[in-house]
# Entry
Amino acid sequence: MKIEQILDDIFFNSYEKILIWIPTGKIIYANPGFLSFLNLQNIPSLQSEICSEEAFLEELEYLKDLQKSGEYSKNYRKFFHQEEFLLETEVSTHFIRFKNYTAYLSRVYPYEGDIDKELILRRQNNILLELTRSSVIDSGNLEEAVREITEAATRALDCERSGVWFFTEDNSKIRAMNLYNKLEKSHSSGYELTAKDFPAYFRYLYEERALGANNAYTDPNTYEFSEVYLKPFNIKSMLDAPIRIEGKMIGVICNETVGKYKKWTVEEINFAGSLADFVSRAIEASERRKVEEKIKEINDSLESKVREQTSEIRESLFRITHLKELQDGDYFLTSLILNPMMENNNHSEIIKTDFLIKQFKQFKFRDHHEQIGGDFCYTDTLKFPSKQENYIFFLNADAMGKSMQGASGAIVLGTVILNALWELKTASSTEQIEPKKWLENIILEINNIFLTFGGLMQVSCFIGLIEEAGKKMLYSNCEHPAPILYRDRKVSFFDNRTHYMKLGTLPLEKILVRQSKLLIGDILFIGSDGKDDIELSGRDGSKNINEDETLFWQCIENAEGNLDNIYNNLKTKGRLIDDLSILRIEIF
# Structure
């Protein structure tokens, strides 16, 4: 059996850092613990590859009398190269004899004296910079992003293991999506722990930025892991941070030492929190990629129905294609799709419509001031082949989420609405299309399309048709705030009944469409919940969310029904914290 095989049998699984060499500087053996310590892929051939000539000669001077003196070992300090850094260590070297030659066996330990904090911080900052610039994290490939983050974590924190764990759907367990072992240079997944077995651990992480347990067996927040997790994997210290999306904890990143205890510094604890932020960023990129792919899938399926495009949409698509090539900002690209979809195309002099939209996400891109969000308004004047009179179509909707998530839902909604209106306008004059049936079908189609997102996208809306001559209104409310009627300078609810849950929640077989008659002089205000969700300031400086649904009524009365003045009155009440849209319908 070769000497290398014998040494491997002895030292391969040892957590000590072992280096065996001869006085010429040739290296006979280095175990995985030593290679991992210096971030090496393969065993070096010579000492000159891992330390300076000066350090090697100084080491030989320490050891020259070791064989003659009969001493058991020599202890000294030595600087090794670790990537671009010099790493100070404590070395304990023994003289050993093989059959044909003599050699030295060195046990290497991190120097625990004056820790070079500047070097550690510089290394951590360099790794943070690498992750910040990483294209993998923002690529939407969550698995590859997590692999990169866990490998970086072991290098930055000088630990042997790093893993990203997520709660299962019912929150009963936490499952390892990716667990990196630096000693074995391997990634694994699928390991599960039951969440209720570790109440102290999760209670702490729900409230804090990170948890550093120097001794995981005695720390009050981690000792619960001792039998089922720490001992089986010889884990000594843990540094964990919660992964949050929109404030909700969905998992943890867990960094662990194996076979040794470690005292975590404040800088390392903060670094762990930053690692969790990178995981959150990778998740958001992955979700954004899924939504974009779903939107593309919907648009592709609708393409067969669309036979022509308006010049505005073609121009928008051209601008989007050009901007995508330049990669100049997701928000601006999204606004170019969404905003042209929201138009007040009703030109009736009998039933006049107007609307105001103030999305919560306001931004500037180059010379453009734009906004994106989930609120959506649309009006149009329609002619049904089976009817002589005109109908006014109106819609006020609120897609789930703010910013990019809400805008994605609004784009899907706008695509469905524009397609349905185009089909009606291009229908044959002989087709028998009843207004009520057409309205029911449009609601069913919106619901069916949003159901394909599996609950990730939902939309509330108030949608309807008004007969221009008779002022008869057909309408349906899908978990949307009740409209406000301004009649004879008095404000009241028009109809505060909700007919259905948000579209995209449950399958629907048929739709309930109600009917009512409006009077001359009536003004109907239909708005999203942004008109009520206002942050109010108390006299003592406290902040609370408005719960008075009549606050908006006061703004209508004070503004005498003027839309712009209503908005200005709302702003004086407090800070708007949600997407806001108000549709105004006046009967003449």
In short: DSSP finds 15 helices and 28 strands in the chain. The first strand starts at residue 17 and ends at 21. The longest helix spans residues 266-303. The mean pLDDT is 89.
